Every structure is written in structure tokens, then in C-alpha cells.
Amino acid sequence: MESRRLSAALLLPALLLQSTVLFAQTLKPYLQSLTDHSVWVSWRTTTGTESTVIWGDAPDALNNTATGDLHTFSAQYLWHRVKISGLQPNTPYYYQVKTGAETSPVFRFRTYQNPATATGHIRVLVVGDTQHPVTAQRTFQAAKEKMIEKYGPVLEDQVHLILKQGDNVDAGVLSQYTSMHFDPLSNLSGNIPTMTVVGNHEYYQNSDLSYYFPHFEFNDPDLLYNGIAGTNDEHYYAFRVGSVLFCMLNSNEWWASQTQWLTNVVNTAGNDPSVKWIFGTAHHPLRCENWVSDGSAYIRDQIVPVLRASEKTAMYTSGHSHMYARGSNRDSAVWEIISGGGGPIQNWNENP
Length: 352
Description:
By secondary structure, this protein is an alpha/beta fold. It folds into 2 domains: about 30-110, Purple acid phosphatase-like, N-terminal (Immunoglobulin-like, Sandwich), CATH 2.60.40.380; about 125-340, Purple Acid Phosphatase, chain A, domain 2. It contains 5 helices and 18 strands. It has helices at about 1-25, 135-150, 175-185, 255-270, 295-310; strands at about 30, 40-45, 50-55, 65, 70-75, 75-85, 90-100, 100-105, 105-110, 125, 160-165, 195, 235-240, 245-250, 275-280, 315-320, 325, 335-340. Strands 13-14-15-16-18-17 form a 6-stranded mixed sheet, with helices on one face. The longest helix has 22 residues, at about 1-25. The protein is globular, with a radius of gyration of 22 Å. The termini are far apart. Residues about 1-25 have low confidence and may be disordered.
């Protein structure tokens, strides 16, 4: 009998420990809207309202604390967001996110160079249409392995941005933002910032995009190029990575206000000697040989001509078509890239 009591006494703490492990939250930080002096850190929990980031210039010296707020999407989908400010350009920092008793591992990121004095390479991982959990996981695992092979294990010192081309989900429901965007990206998102545009699938079952925009921080004045904001809030925006200017567009909305905003941004950048290159990004391509109907007349006839008007424009990138393609017009030096290969591949001769 004594032996049985002892076994039960030993078993009870084991069960309690197992229960704790099973129900512990895994905090997965997501960096976004990085500048040369600030960054936003976000993460999801199912419980707990604390939004705290502890950070510093060494992994064993997290001596600073930043707090933020959260957006409650549902009772078990709490989205935490914290801004860290007062950072130095081109400097590595370490951080850990905290909600209640739960903490993440320590992550590392590097701020951007001061745009006025930036030099060297800008490396960007461009991915579109990760609207399937299996292909999304496979895509970002393969991308990480290839980047480590090319640039070494400390990727945040070599790769500056993850650029998502829209259709981050198959339907705009909360569970898919987790399974198709944030979770597959979590092997990179704690170290390298991600910026996105809206695809057509984000509108499905969520036409007002109320599950999309609260996840992101695209209207931060510290982020916006020259403070130029559009009249349609975060649907389109422009930001700097060193000497490169990224113009992020919503190709689902054929707004004259968006075209005018882009004209203003491109004209301003044309007179800005610190901007060396301009990249345009939206979900829809201007043309697609594999699936002709995927091309957008709005992008082709209104957006791309504005981009081409500047000699600084180097590239227009898009997704929508589940393939990789590149090319340019014979009368233009602007490259056109389709990078929708994050989704199930649409092979040649398999589409109408």
C-alpha cells in the first residue's frame, strides 16, 4: 500500500507538469515596419493581456522595456503589438516578448542604415500566394535553408526584408492568418521584418478586411516615406530600406486616389538624391503569359506608367499567378517579376 501511495505521489506532479507543458503558449514574434530607428514587434496569444518587449544590445543585457497594447480579434485570438523606438541605425539588437508568465526565446534583428548615407546591397526575399499551410511551411523552410547556404546563419545581417505579395490566406478568416501566414513565417519573422500587400483572397469572407489590417502597422509616421500618406489609410504606403523606396499598392481597388498618391511619391523620390531605386509592389501582375486573365488593366494602364516615368524605378513585383516569371518591355528598363510560387504551382498548359 505504501508503495502505491508513493507511486501516486510521484505521478501527480508529473501529470501537473505535463498539463502545464501541453497548455503553455508558444510566443512567436513577428517583426514589421522596421526603420533605421524603430521597429514594431507583434505576436499572438490565446490568453493574457500583457504586451511587453524587453530588449538590449546583448542577449544577456536586455535592460530596456517597451510596452504596447493588443487587438482582440476573438476570445482566443489576442494580437499583441509593441513599438521599440530610439534605436541606432545599422545596429543589432536582442529582444524577448512577454505575456504574463510566458516568454519567447531571445531573438536578434538589425536596424536599417540611415537612408541619407546608406551603402551596400539590399537583399529581399519576395514571396507571394502562401495560401496553403503545407506549401507555405515548405516554402519558408526551403527559403531559409537556401539563404543560409548563400549568406550564412546570421540572416538578419544579410537579408533586410521579407516582401509578401498578397494572398497570404485562402480566405480572410482568422485561423488562416495563423496557419498560412504567421506560423509558416515564424522560422524567419523574429529576425527579419515582413511587409505585405493585400491580395484578392484576403477579401473572401472578410470584405472589409477587418481581420487583415489590425495585424499590421503600415500607417506609422516613422515608417511612411516623407510622411506621404494616402487617403485610404493602410491600403497603400511607401517606406525606405536604405536607398531603396518600396511603393506598396492594393491592386484590388482601382482608386484614382491611389494613382495620385503614387504619382506624388514617385515625383518626390525623383527629386530626392538619397533615393537610388524605386520598387513597386502589388498583388496583381500587369501581364501573365501562363494565365492571361490574371493581368490587371489597372496596374498596366495606370500604375506601371507612373512607375516608369521615373528613371529610378527598377522593378515591379507581384503575385496572383502561382508561378515565377520575369521580363520587361522592349521600351522599358523596368523589370516585371511574378513571384506567386508560394502557392500550389500553376504549370504551363494546365490553365485555360
